[in-house]
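Researcher: I'm preparing a figure for a lab meeting and need a structural model of a single chain. I don't have an experimental structure, so a prediction will have to do for now. The sequence is pasted below. Please return the structure as tokens so I can convert it later.
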Amino acid sequence: MKLIFMQKKVKLSIYYFTIVLALFLALNFLVIRSINDPMTNHIADGVVRSLLAILSAFLLGKIIQSNGFKFSFSFQYMKKTLLASLPILLLIVLAALRLINVVEINFHFEPFSTYIAISLLRDLSSGIFEEVWFRGLLMTATLYYYGNTAKGRLLVVIATSLLFGLGHYGGGLSQIFSTFLGGVVFSAVYVYSMNLLLIGLLHGLMNSLTAMVNIEQIRSIGMAYAVGVANLVLSIAALAFAIIIIVKSEPFSKKLTLKFD
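Model: Understood. Here is the structure written out token by token.
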């Protein structure tokens, strides 16, 4: 009976995920892509992602109910989240160093201060939306059902991260692969801390820093090479760290149980 109940929760999670996907695609093609003004386009994109993040969080709350919603989307367990996010924080530092090394920062409208403010709003909204959508809405019920073993947790993380990577097909195979690896690292933080809010903000900040780098106009080739090597080494270390966290974590221990009934 419990097995059937949990299978329904997993199906409900996938169903809600698909609803948000359909809404996102519809709004993206019908609204956002129809706006030619760059500033208005950025604002509209941020608003749409913010609204969908709220909807995803609400649907996640319907799945896990009671104390699960507050536990999954708050600043609780901050120390655990920051500890697991250490590789991500270091990657953000490297992204900032890359930004320092460029002659010209990518921006789509002026003044620059307005662009920074609106882009941060959009990127932070995007980061929170994607984390609540993929890691929260898609992973939580699935993780609760399959996450009792290390193998089950790894399979859930790989499957959802692969979908996350394929969702970024617009950037080609390299972006699909890098986004897949990023999905694994962010998923590991969620499995360990069960906290969506902070990793959503970190995700958005990384997106924002990466988008502003113009790799065609750099100040120092030596610094670019050093940062690139450091980024590669740290990415490999972050992936290894993520796998260890996923294997060792017990996301649904007695102390941190998400109630479904």
